[in-house]
Each structure stands twice: as structure tokens, then as C-alpha cells.
Write a structure and sequence with these properties.
The protein is of the alpha+beta class. 40% of the residues lie in helices and 14% in strands.
Length: 356
């Protein structure tokens, strides 16, 4: 077994030396930039994440600037990238790093993993890429490669299995070339040992890959259970009063926390405007009910990991003052606020020219 493991490590490093894919963060030694890239690329494709990485780094070039920024500034730079808890954790960790580590990311896996938003994978990535610590990364790509090569028919959906794959990964890592090895195995999973249609015929590991030899590549790792998504229906009120509309920040423990939104009524299915007039929010935002429905939008849709969001926007003209809980903004400044993707899609169609 040890010779097979040695072969695996040697081949992965050899493949990487011949198939290096340049990226702005590859070869980077600045722990802050490594941390930022790793957080951004969680659950995000490289092509989508790269412009965000460059924009974010320009606005927040170091941990001190990030720590001193407001949450609104951070969320605005993150707008459209999704999974907004990453941005909230990044901001919270920056403050802790400045306060407790003198502005330097800790050079210890145990200290890194204590920071908000940094799990085992990210801690290992930072530790190896920034400090050369031989701590093996285990993401979806690594899990898939090891599952196939060693014919381990297990998901990493519980602590026991996570420990099994982490221990195996740490046996395989080249302790003298930890950063190169971690980058190599992640790239190999992204380019060769793909989840669907893997390039087995050109794979340098096929000699000892047990899944390839037993013709079980497409069965390993075992499939995850499909997530049943919840359908949600949002009705947004774009209330126009003296050239302004009204928004508030989402603060509840729900999707899009710390992002802004218009007055919103959630229902169990899409309703007509007439059918939502009895909702208590109507009385809060349109107390005398002297208003005019100017326009109703099409249905906007946004898919999240566990939810499908369906939204309709109602443009409403009113002469009544809205409750103080809502912040008045004009059309020129509204894009300074960070909104969820579904609202941003609506705003990108420049519908709010009706405010003027």
C-alpha cells in the first residue's frame, strides 16, 4: 500500500508541473490574499469569482482596511456573488485578526480554524499555501479522487468519514512541497478526475486506480441525496413618494441577512396585488390606502441551494408618508446599497426611472 501511496503523490506532483493553470492567487504567499481567494471560491466557479476577487482586493487591499470598513461596504462589494454569510464571516474574522493577531493571519491550523467562516479545508489551504505547513486539503475534488483511487465507497457527510479521508489525505501529502501538492490535487480533480465524464484514458493514475480497474469510476463516490428545495413567493412594494422609494436592511436569521430590500410580503403562492391588500404591511406602508398601482413586473426567479425564490415587484405611487422603519432613497443613490440578486435583476432593468 505504501508504494501505491508514494506513486500517487509523485504522479500528482508530476502532472501539476506539466499542467499548471495560472491564476492571480496561485503561488501567492500573502496570507490575506490566500484567505480571500479561498473564501470567495467556496461554492463559486473560478470564472465567476475572479472579477470579484480583483474588485474586492482593490477596495480592501489588506486586513486593516477590511476590518475598518462598514458591513454595508463589504456587502456591496460582495453583491451578486451569493452565499453572503461568507462576507459576514470575512468581515468578522478581519476584526478578530486585527484585534488579537496584530493584523496577521495566524500561522497555525488550530488558530485559523477558530476564526469565523474558516473550516478544515480553508484552514489547511491557508496553512499550506501561506506557511508551508503540511496540512492536506479535503474538498469535493479531493474526496472524489481518493474515493476512486482507493475504492472507498463513502461520502464525507459525517465526522467519522471526514476523519477517514482527512487522515488518508495527510498520509499522501508531500511534507516538503505541501502547497504544491494541495494545489495539484485540487487542480487534478477540476481538470481530470471530473464528477461526470472523467478523463480516465489520459489519467496518469489509472495504473493503480481501483475504481478504473473495477469499472466503478461512475459509481464512486456514492451519490448524495437530492435536496428538496423549498419554494418561496415574495411580493415587493416599490412605493414612490415625492421622488423617493423606501428600503430596509434584512436583520433576521434568514437568507440575505444584512442586505437591503423593499417592503416585502411573503405568501405561500404567488398572489394578485388585490389579494395582498389586506396584509398588515400594507397598512404600515400605505396607511390611508390612497395610492395608485403604476406597474406590475414579470415574475423574477432565483435559485438558492435549498430554496427557489419567486418574486413580483409592484410600482406604487402614494402621497402618504411611510413608517419610520423604512429608509427613503432616491433613484440616483439606490444602487449604492447592496441588494439580493433577485432585486438587483429588477433594478438592472432601470425600472426606477419612474421615480423621476
Amino acid at each position: 500500500m505504501s508504494s501505491i501511496k508514494t506513486y500517487f503523490t509523485r504522479q500528482i506532483l508530476q502532472w501539476h508541473s506539466e499542467h499548471f493553470r495560472p491564476m492571480p492567487w496561485k503561488g501567492e504567499k500573502d496570507p490575506y490574499k490566500i484567505w480571500l481567494s479561498e473564501i470567495m471560491l467556496q461554492q463559486t466557479r473560478v470564472a465567476q469569482g475572479m472579477p470579484y476577487y480583483q474588485k474586492f482586493l482593490k477596495r480592501f487591499p489588506d486586513v486593516y482596511v477590511l476590518a475598518n470598513a462598514s458591513m454595508d461596504e463589504v456587502m456591496k462589494q460582495w453583491e451578486g456573488l451569493g452565499y453572503y454569510s461568507r462576507a459576514r464571516h470575512l468581515h468578522a474574522s478581519a476584526k478578530l485578526i486585527v484585534k488579537h493577531f496584530d493584523g496577521h493571519l495566524p500561522a497555525s491550523y488550530k488558530e485559523l480554524i477558530r476564526l469565523p467562516g474558516i473550516g478544515p479545508y480553508t484552514a489547511s489551504a491557508i496553512a499550506s499555501f501561506a506557511y508551508g505547513i503540511p496540512s492536506a486539503v479535503v474538498d469535493g475534488n479531493v474526496h472524489r479522487i481518493l474515493s476512486r483511487y482507493f475504492a472507498i465507497n463513502k461520502l464525507i457527510d459525517n465526522s467519522k468519514n471526514k476523519q477517514l479521508f482527512t487522515a488518508l489525505a495527510n498520509q499522501l501529502i508531500d511534507r516538503q512541497q505541501a502547497a504544491a501538492y494541495n494545489q495539484a490535487i485540487m487542480d487534478f480533480g477540476a481538470d481530470v478526475c471530473l464528477a461526470k465524464n472523467p478523463n480516465c484514458k489520459s489519467c496518469i493514475l489509472e495504473k493503480h486506480c481501483q475504481a478504473y480497474r473495477s469499472n466503478t469510476v461512475n459509481h464512486l463516490p456514492p451519490p448524495r441525496k437530492r435536496i428538496k428545495k423549498r419554494n418561496r413567493f415574495f411580493h415587493y412594494l416599490i412605493i414612490i413618494n415625492e421622488g423617493k422609494t423606501f428600503i430596509r436592511k434584512r436583520t433576521e436569521q434568514d437568507i440575505w441577512k444584512n442586505l437591503w430590500e423593499f417592503p416585502m410580503i411573503e405568501t405561500t403562492e404567488l398572489k394578485s396585488f388585490k389579494s395582498i391588500l389586506a396584509h398588515k404591511l400594507i397598512n404600515e406602508c400605505l396607511p390611508v390606502q390612497q395610492f395608485e398601482l403604476i406597474k406590475q413586473s414579470r415574475i423574477y426567479k432565483q435559485q438558492l441551494t435549498h430554496q427557489n425564490i419567486n418574486a413580483v415587484f409592484y410600482m406604487i405611487k402614494s402621497n402618504n408618508q411611510i413608517a419610520r422603519a423604512w429608509q427613503p432613497v432616491d433613484s440616483k443613490s439606490i444602487l449604492n446599497f447592496a441588494f439580493p440578486g433577485i432585486i438587483h435583476s429588477f433594478l438592472s432593468e432601470k425600472t426606477l426611472h419612474l421615480l423621476n
